[in-house]
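Pasting as-is:
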Amino acid sequence: MRQDMKPSMKPLLRSFGMFIRQISKDSMLIVVCIAPILAAFFFHFGIPIIEGLLCEFFRKTTVLTPYNLLFDLFLSILTPYMFCFASAMLMLTEYDEGMTSYLAVTPIGKKGYILSRLLTPAVISFFASSLLLLYFALTTWAFMMIIMVCLLTSLTSIAVALLVFSISHNRVEGMAMAKLSGLMMLGLPVPFFLLSNVQYIFAFLPSFWIAKLGMEQNVLYFIPALLTSLTWLWILYRKFERKLT
């Protein structure tokens, strides 16, 4: 069985290696991939300092502390979002240069191309965001909760990459679309600021359920979060596949 897997794995690894080399040659994408680490340091060390200054200025005991969980949730989604954004930018470059159709007929195939450009970066970002949340979170997280939240944020970010690639025609449009796709993260602050049932207007966003899961620590919220993520993936993957053909 191992002998059957080796030929299919080699082209996949070569394709992913090419993906990494392309990122290493693009200074903007290097910064994009490093950004979550910088954000983690800022949230962990900068927010408490800012909190102290604000408390002193407004003469209050807490200002930002009630929203520490929200900062953690933003950190959990920022890593996969940035990784998948970088992936979408590279796919758009390859699409413009006609490399996408070429790679689809090589031994890697269309499925291998998708694995190396979407699934592999999402898996890496899952581990990266889990580690950042484990060591830089402002609040205390149960290990299982970190796993569930980071799994969901990785799935959501794949949907963002599919959206950016499917709708954009080039990298310039892709960058503009990436800013617009940031609206998918709009669900994170909703449960923190909308306490009435009006908040469920945003129930179609996976990020809304991710925030509910983080706030209430109720694993039942994992189900709607997963279902909404998979629904977005199903819709956007169909558009993505049509563009590849």
